[in-house]
Amino acid sequence: MTFINISLKTLMLYLFLGFFYINASQVEYRYNLRGELINEKADNEFNYYAVDALGNRLSISKGEFSSDLNPITLTAPDNYSIKNLSQSITFTWLPIKGASYYDFWFGDEPGKLRQFKTGITATSLKLDFSHISDSHSRYWNVVAHDGKGANSKSPIYTFSALDSDRDQLPDHIEDKLCMSSQTPDSDNDGLLDSQEMRFGESIIMTSLPCLQDSDFDGIEDAYEVEAGSDPMVVDSYRGDNWSHYVDWIAKKHEQQQLEVISERRLLDVRNTNGYAISGFAPGSEAMSMTYWVKHAESHEQQTMGSDDDSGRRFYAGIDQENSVTFGVGNKAVTLSKVKIEDEDWTHVALVYLNSVAEIYINGQLKHTMRSLAFKEASQYALWIGARHHKRAWQPESIEGVIDNLSVWNVALSKQDVEKSMFSLDRVTSNNLLGFYDFNESRGEWVKNRVTNKFDLKLVAGAKLKLEENYIDSDSDGIPDIFESALCSDSYNSDSDADGIPDGEELGIGSSLDVTSNPCNADTDNDGIADGFEYLHSMNPALNDALKSNLGSKNSYWQKYVSYVEKRDSEVQVIEEDRHFDVAGSQGKIM
Question: What's the pTM?
Answer without folding.
Answer: 0.71
